[in-house]
Design goal:
By secondary structure, the chain is an alpha/beta fold. The chain is built from 14 helices and 10 strands. Helix 6 packs antiparallel against helix 7 (192-199).
Amino acid sequence: MARRKAAPRIGLALAGGGPLGAIYEIGALCALEEALQGVDFSELQGYVGVSAGGFIAAGLANGMSPRQLCRAFIENSGPRHDAVDPAVFIRPAWGEYLRRGAMLPRLVAQAGASFLFERRSLLAAVERLGRALPTGAFSNAPLEAQMRRILSAPGRSNDFRQLKRPLVLVATDLDSGATAPFGLPGWDHVPISKAIAASAALPGLFPPVPIDGRWYVDGALKKTLHARVLLDMGLDLVLCLNPLVPFDATHSERHRVLSSGEARIPRLVEGGLPVVMSQTFRTLIHSRLEIGIQGYETSHPDTDVLLFEPDQRDPEMFLANTFGYAQRRWLAEHAYQRTRADLRRRRSTLRGRLARHGVTLDDGALDDPTRTLVGKRGIVHNRAARALRRLDEVLHDLDRALAARS
């Protein structure tokens, strides 16, 4: 690829993953912010966010740095108007419960008439009662209100059209299955906070969000990243973060107990339905991501796409509660340190690709063992430990070279 004379245009695509995904992305972004010299994450030329990645993208597009997001979402130590109350994720959708409950007497009568007089099967009659089930367990109104407050602070905007940087938050039209790219022309009149709520409305957990007479749900139903929005802008470099990956239990670390104190599951089937469903969901969304990344290389060969995600051998991220918030400090620190380790492993490969866009790796920051995100950690002065870490980087580069030759 020829070196461009103009200043490189860089964009950021953030996938979803519930509160866990947001925590991972904040930790990873803080690590990237330190390591990538020449990249200001609050001054990029385009942002696209899906689900939990949407509110992070909205904060960055409004000039908030990754560290500011960490203080607001992880540490609750920033300005009062930036503090994120974890209760917004688990507030019952009482209005939805009442609306659906009010339908129950009529549905019971219809089901009885269908079974007794129309001679339909009992199963068909009972299916009618399904309409009384709530479309979501938790209300998305508190989340929307909190994001509206954060984005209404001085120097920020809850209006796509007033932003200095392009921002797209992707949701899915429930009735048509079509993509809803809030922020693009024709979709930019919707308040950003409302678009965040729509993009994060995962069916079953949050009710669909009404906007202009239509109903919208999680944008991940269509695609995992929606990075093509940025590619179509003609950007030179697109950085992608995906927090949810399938777990490779066959090559995971050998320790039997996690840092959180929870016993490790040697085989996923022993974890029961929750673990099996988590692995299934992660595998499905990751397979779509892999296909998308491969397609980008063909459809947009002039744009470099760099993907950052958790190590598939890392049981800490896999077994963490996707919708948990209590361990946010520990998980953010874990994501921060693992991303730094990933950058060190990929250092040789990344250096050349980043250099094409005027971006360099800060080796001093990457190799500094004292750096932390939200807490103190032991300083690794052991020469053998540093040598093993460097050997891991070399082996990683060798593995990639052999794979390329084969």
